[in-house]
Design a protein that fits this description.
- The chain is mostly helical and 206 residues long.
- The chain has one domain.
- It has 10 helices and no strands.
- The longest helix has 25 residues, at 52-76.
- The chain is globular.
Length: 206
């Protein structure tokens, strides 16, 4: 019985996660976000190509849909172990690989924030704060992103006493890291966009 619930929850959460505000706004403004800038349907590229208001709206939407997926799953199936985590990871994968956009979405970080905060808001906010500090110290946004996707599964697994929870979240972390592989290459080559330049000129990459 639980297996069927997991499958249904995963599909529904994936569909919810596939909702993409950056894409909707780009269609209204008639700007092809999928083929400009970083060619990524996420909040960063939306900010770069569509403006700050579009970027903020996209980020809030991406975080919110992940929070909603986790909360609804826990409310509807409170007796099913780790159902919230399964829903959260499914929403992240839906954002990254939306079925109606030829599986080309965003990189999933904003939605991952939503999942972490929804599962444990105290830990989520602490790790997010750490990620911000790491980004500021290193001068690379992706460094902060990486710290959060690495520490979140570990911290939540430890504080919830559930190795399986950590493994489930690690699936999303691995996919997000893979989506940021170009950023890591650019850091190695010294060409990655630096956070200090965010307010002085338009970034080339998200």
């Amino acid at each position: 019985m639980h297996f069927l619930i997991y499958v249904i929850t995963f599909i529904c959460a994936y569909a919810l996660g596939s909702s993409n505000m950056a894409y909707y706004i780009s269609k209204i403004k008639k700007i092809d976000v999928k083929n400009q800038g970083s060619k990524n349907l996420g909040a960063s590229n939306a900010t770069m190509l569509l403006g700050w208001s579009a970027g903020i709206l996209s980020a809030v939407h991406d975080i919110g849909k992940a929070v909603l997926a986790v909360v609804l799953a826990n409310l509807i199936f409170p007796e099913v172990p780790l159902i919230g985590a399964v829903a959260g990871v499914a929403s992240v994968l839906g954002h990254i690989y939306p079925f109606y956009l030829k599986f080309r979405g965003g990189k999933g970080f904003a939605s991952f924030i939503g999942v972490t905060v929804a599962l444990n808001w105290k830990i989520g906010l602490i790790i997010l704060a750490v990620a911000v500090v790491v980004a500021l110290i290193t001068n690379y946004i992706v460094a902060g992103t990486t710290s959060m996707i690495v520490f979140s599964p570990i911290a939540l697994a430890v504080f919830s006493h559930s190795l399986l929870l950590g493994i489930i979240l690690a699936i999303a972390s691995a996919v997000i890291a893979y989506k940021h592989r170009d950023n890591y290459v650019r850091i190695f080559n010294g060409t990655e966009f630096k956070l200090s330049k965010a307010f002085t000129k338009k970034p080339k990459y998200d």
